[in-house]
Design brief:
Elements: E1 3-7, H1 13-21, E2 24-27, E3 38-41, H2 48-51, E4 56-59, H3 69-75, E5 78-80, H4 87-102, H5 105-109, E6 127-131, H6 135-146, E7 150-154, H7 159-163, H8 172-175, E8 181-184, H9 198-203, E9 208-212, H10 221-229, E10 233-238, E11 258-260, H11 269-287, E12 296-298
Parallel strand pairs: 1-2, 1-3, 3-4, 4-5, 6-7, 6-8, 8-9, 9-10, 10-11
Antiparallel strand pairs: 5-12
Helix pairs in contact: 1-11, 4-6
Length: 302
């Protein structure tokens, strides 16, 4: 039986070739969303009206906040993702933003010939609080530790962090006053929406840095702008924002000490191919009746 896959956005050509080699017809991405047996989606929004058009949805990445999950559950649609596929790439981007902020990269670039450069804080010896300890959080922790940072973990489940020997912080509010740098690596859910807002920023030390390579909705951007303009926070590195792409007139673009990258953390050549291949393989496995449980988000019993 010939099956169809609608692809919302460009993915690695090897992923499309894998699907076609297995007899699937690939539709998209340069057309309006339409019914198919499966949907392969990156960041495009999949509404409650959209989900019922597919037997299964394969997410190219980890976060599924762009998919109407409740509607998918009600419609009996299987949703799978690709955990770990982009962890190394996102961890690299996270450390890149930390270094750029801590070493005042913009300031160093503007130093005129013959002018003395200003001293920077750097990362060695600074206290890093990682919020979320999935595949990416683990890689960031290891890289930061290698740079000489003092790493503490806050996560829903702290068993693995303890097993790996990291100090843990069960209470986020109590940990924030001791964090020179905070890096976000948790999913966007109803519980984590605006997790970092005015109260959280007020608890962080003066001059602290915030890095977000997870989901824009974790941060109350108006509160972040206020904290930066007031000089309470020392800087923010954001690969993700609430609205993407970020409008050119967005106030974040005019806020001091903000480094913005365009949701590019996952786009290393290796990670992009790996996510595409895993997303395509999830489709093949689902229709072959061998879906890997660790990649299935809905239904829970599959």
């Amino acid at each position: 039986m010939e099956r169809t896959v609608f692809v919302t956005e460009p993915v690695h050509p090897d992923a499309l070739a894998l699907l076609r080699d297995e007899g699937f017809t690939v539709i998209g991405p340069d057309m309006p969303m339409q019914p198919a047996d499966a949907l392969l989606v990156r960041t495009c929004g999949v509404s409650a009206q959209d989900v019922a058009q597919y037997q299964m949805i394969s997410k190219h990445g980890v976060g599924v906040d762009n998919i109407a999950m409740s509607a998918a559950a009600l419609a009996g649609v299987t949703v799978m993702n690709t955990p770990g596929a982009n962890a190394a790439a996102v961890a690299e981007q996270t450390i890149l933003l930390m270094l750029a902020l801590a070493r005042n990269l913009d300031g160093q670039r503007s130093v005129a010939p013959g002018q003395a450069a200003s001293q920077v804080l750097g990362l060695e010896g600074r206290r890093l609080l990682i919020v979320g300890f999935g595949a990416t959080g683990k890689r960031v922790a290891a890289l930061a530790k290698a740079l000489g940072m003092n790493v503490t973990i806050h996560s829903r489940d702290l068993k693995e962090a303890r097993h790996l020997g990291y100090p843990v912080a069960p209470d986020l509010g109590k940990a924030l006053p001791f964090a020179d740098v905070v890096s976000l690596h948790c999913p966007l859910t109803a519980q984590t929406q605006n997790l970092f807002a005015a109260e959280a920023f007020a608890q962080m030390p003066v001059g602290a840095l915030l890095v977000n390579c997870a989901r824009g909705g974790l941060v109350d951007e108006a509160a972040l702008i206020d904290a930066l303009n007031a000089g309470h926070l020392g800087g923010a590195g954001l690969d993700v924002t609430v609205t993407e792409p970020l409008p050119m007139d967005d106030p974040l673009r005019r806020t001091p000490n903000v480094i913005l990258t365009p949701h590019a953390a996952t786009l290393s050549a290796g990670a992009f191919r790996r996510m595409g291949m895993m997303a395509a393989q999830n489709i093949l496995d689902y229709f072959a009746g061998r879906a890997k449980a660790e990649y299935v988000l809905l239904p829970k019993e599959l």
